[in-house]
Amino acid sequence: MKHVIIGNGPAGVVAAEALRKADAAAEIVLIGAEPEPAYSRMAIPYLLEGNIDESGTWLRKTEGHFARLRIRELQARVVSMNTTQRKLLLADGQFETYDRLLIASGSHPVRPSIPGIDLPQVQTCWTLADARAIASLAKPGTRVLQLGAGFIGCIIMEALAARGVELTVVEMGDRMVPRMMTPKAGGMIKQWVESKGVRVLTGKGVQRIAPAGANPGLLDRLAQAVGVGAKSEASGLTVTLSDGEALGCDLVIVAAGVAPNVGFLENTGVQVAKGVLVDSRMQTTVAGIYAAGDVAEAPDLLTGAHLVAAIQPNAADQARVAALNMAGREAQLPGVLAINVLDTLGLVSTSFGQWWGETAQNGGAGTELVDSANHRYLSLQFKDDVLIGATSIGHTEHVGVLRGLIQTRTRLGSWKDALLKDPNCYMAAYLASAQRAA
Amino acid sequence: MQKSLHIDANKCTGCLQCEMACSYENHGVFNISKSRIKVFNFEHAGRKVPYTCTQCSEAWCMTACPVDAIRIDAGTGAKAVHEDICVGCKVCTIACPFGTVNYIAETGKVQKCDLCGGEPACADACPTGAITYVDADWTGLDKMRAWAGKTDTQPRATA
Ligand SMILES: Cc1cc2nc3c(=O)[nH]c(=O)nc-3n(C[C@H](O)[C@H](O)[C@H](O)COP(=O)(O)OP(=O)(O)OC[C@H]3O[C@@H](n4cnc5c(N)ncnc54)[C@H](O)[C@@H]3O)c2cc1C
Ligand code: SF4
Fold first, then answer.
1. Which of A345, A372, B147, B156 is deepest in the core (most CB within 10 A)?
2. What is the pLDDT of residues B113-154, one digit of tens each?
3. Considering the entire predicted model, what is its pTM?
4. Which ligand 2 atom minimizes the distance to the CA of B95?
5. Same-domain status, B100 and B22
6. Could you give the CA distance from residue A400 to residue B42 in angstroms, rounded to a whole number?
7. Fold classification of A2-108+258-326 (topology level)
């Protein structure tokens, strides 16, 4: 049996290892398009902060790891495929055949269609190549404007701030991390970040990016006229916001969302909505072809709504289930549970599942505990006596049980009322109801 | 034979010797807030429950780690955090459905039980035998493991 995996990010690597564990004899090929050892994108912020060097981002650190597991690494870009002949066409003109295929090609950052978005000083922060470019451009004092304050945007923000840049963040939503945090929590994060010297503009978009001086906004012209304009370096940019404000900056970082890498699947019968559609075994609409990670689209565990969950733990979970099925074993993932943890300049927040809650008609109930003075926050959301979602700030002890309770749909019984009164007792509620420890 | 921690909450008196020993072993200070094992106090039920990682075979923390910082110790089978590699992303703390990986702000890294390399300080310190280090076969952690198995396979309707 020959297993081919497209993509050598976390999903591809976890799948390759799980395949080897499940089948000692199989042939395994791991294809990656980037000219790097298999690495982890989410380690890039720590590289930019200077906490690690590039080797710190590598997914596996042991020399010869893949060779030892008899996983053949192939650096190539898949451009199209023939599902009848079970053949991949690579960018260099070569072919690679497969018996079973895993699509783990991840996603790419989207550049919104804004004039000037393709200028050289406008960067995404997604690959090691991006990281190298940002490292050379973002120096202490560099004026950086970041477009987007979603989950990944906030993580990048932390790394940029650590580099000592002068940072402004522009987010279209009404708060920071709008798709992961309750309004209250998003507001607390914004306040915290602003107190650390980052300028945060929510409810605003970027309308135009132009080389400074090329098309100065009114404010710029006024400022220059009275001699207080930002120093107009040759490389500078002027960014115009939706409310007309014009900002001078040296570097724009785009973190405005991602889209799955599905181009090579055109006309293959592998159905793609936003991402590659998979069932609970991670199989696509074509038998023998599976998908996992940032490229896969699966139902949400709680709402059933289809989503592409571009998060690391999901990539690992889906990859493991896909690999077991490819190896002929039985494994299922009934749905995706969205879980996130974020550190914004020292403030740690988490969100789990259906954090926005459920309506009362549908058995929903929730509680929100706000301690602004100590920067702590906890929201728990229930449906009947089962926890379905949570948001926290400032909690770093035992937060994993929130996942445990949601994912296993543990019936909380009388502990639900205890939690509604004091959400902080979630660990006791977990031990008592999930572990039957008390 | 691999060994593991066996916890018998019925024998626990809540003296917190285990937490002290864990903190001293791993941080060189007697500060129970740094302990990797925690004793939970159920006042109404009059029960104390020591709780830490069971070194489960699914090891969600280890598979979720983006930089290979959590590895299986060849000697003990423990899933151990390598602090020199950990970048402090905290993904393992939300991936572990048992909540046994915690982030430590002072170090910027996470910590979890690593069985002290085969001589768990908590078990040594426990005066009542509530925590023992025994052959894995007898630990009675099956209940917890069985529950662990449900985490990614439980069918939707059986809440
Ligand atoms: C800066 C940053 C910070 C992040 N922080 C977090 C975080 O804190 N927590 C979290 O949960 N998630 C985080 N993420 C998201 C996380 O990194 C992804 O969810 C994860 O990398 C997904 O893994 P994957 O293997 O599915 O995709 P990827 O890691 O994107 O890997 C896909 C691989 O496929 C290759 N590929 C693509 N197309 C082709 C092709 N046609 N042929 C061959 N190879 C191809 C790509 O080059 C790539 O190597 C972060 C991401 C970024 C960019
Ligand atoms: S916090 Fe450290 S050990 Fe945990 S997942 Fe991140 S890098 Fe790995």
1. B147
2. 999 999 999 999 999 999 999 987 665 555 555 444 444 433
3. 0.91
4. 5
5. no
6. 20
7. FAD/NAD(P)-binding domain (3.50.50)
The SS3 of residue B69 is: coil
- The architecture in CATH of the region A346-437 reads 2-Layer Sandwich (3.30)
CATH topology identical between A2-108+258-326 and A346-437:
no
For chain B, what is the domain count?
A: 2
CA A347 to chain centre: 18
Domain that holds residue B142: 3-52+115-154
Instruction: State the Cα–Cα distance between residues A29 and A48, nearest whole angstrom.
Output: 31
Q: What distance lies between CA A223 and its chain's CA centroid?
A: 39
Tokens describing residue B6: 């066996």
Same domain flag for B137 and B149: yes
Which residues of chain B are at the A interface, by a Cβ-Cβ cutoff of 8 Å? 9, 38, 40, 42, 45, 47, 49, 51, 60, 63-64, 66-68, 85, 87-91, 93-105, 143-144, 147, 150-156, 158-159
Q: Give the start-end residues of each E strand in A70-184.
A: 71-75, 78-82, 87-90, 95-97, 100-103, 107-109, 122-124, 143-147, 166-171
Identify the residue among A39, A396, A414, A436 best suited for mutation to test binding to B, counting B beta carbons within 10 A and taking the highest. Answer: A396
HSE on the CB side for A227, CA within 13 Å?
Answer: 0
Q: Which residues of A touch B64 (CB under 8 A)?
A: 312-313, 316-317
CA A11 – CA A19 distance, rounded (Å): 12
Q: Where residue B66 sits, what CATH number does that domain have? A: 3.30.70.20
* Residue B75 domain flag: yes
Whether B159 is covered by a domain: the verdict is no
Identify which of B36, B150, B136, B156 has the alpha carbon closest to the alpha carbon of residue B77: B136
- B102 and B124 in a common domain: no
pLDDT digits (tens, 9 = 90+) for A216-241: 555 555 555 555 544 444 579 999 99
Token code pair at residue A435: 């572990």
| CATH code of domain A122-254 | 3.50.50.60
